[in-house]
Amino acid sequence: MIIKLKPTPLAEVKAAKLAQLEQARDAETVKDVSALGTTWQADERSQKLLSAAITLATVGAPLPPVWRDADNNDLTITEIAQLVAIAGAMAVQTQAAYTKSWALKAQVN
Fold first, then answer.
1. 34, containing H or E segment
2. Which residues pair with 11 in a beta bridge?
3. What pLDDT score was predicted for residue 4?
4. Is 39 within 8 Å of 33 (Cβ atoms)?
5. Which sign, positive or negative, has the C-alpha torsion 16, 21, 27, 30?
6. pLDDT value, residue 96
7. Rg of the chain over CA atoms, in angstroms?
8. Pairing status of strand 38-40 against strand 66-68
9. HSE value, Cβ hemisphere, 13 Å, CA-based, for 35
C-alpha cells in the first residue's frame, strides 16, 4: 500500500520559519553583554531595573552604590555614564539581533 503525503502549504512553512526567526531574535536580545570590562545580565528584568536606575538618576536620585554583574560580583557605580554604558551594550545587541532577523525574514519572504 502506497501512502501519499500531502505537502505542507508554503504559507505554513513560511509562517513556521518566521516564528522560529523571531524566537531566535528574542533570545539574542537577552543574552549577557560586555561593558565596563565585565559581563552583565541583559534579561528583561535586568533591562527594566537598569532603565529605572538611569531614569531616577537623571532626575537627581542617587545612583545605586553597587551593581552586580553576571558573575555576581559587586561593582561600584559612581557615574550615570557607567549605567548608560551597560544600557548601550544592551541596545547594540538588540539592534544587531533585529537587523539580522530582518535580513533573514526578507529571505524567507
1. strand 33-35
2. none
3. 77
4. yes
5. negative
6. 98
7. 20
8. unpaired
9. 24
Contact 108, 22 (CB under 8 A): no
Enter the C-alpha cell of residue 83: 549605567
Per-residue pLDDT of the chain (109 residues; tens, 9 = 90+): 777 777 778 888 899 999 999 999 999 999 999 999 999 999 999 999 999 999 999 999 999 889 999 999 999 999 999 999 999 999 999 999 999 999 999 999 9
- Residue 71 has phi, psi (to 5 degrees) of -95, 15
Residue identified by cell 561593558 is 35
**The three grid cell numbers given for residue 88, joined into one nine-digit string:** 548601550
Please answer whether residues 75 and 26 qualify as being in contact, where contact means their C-beta atoms are separated by less than 8 angstroms. no
d(CA 8, CA 92): 38
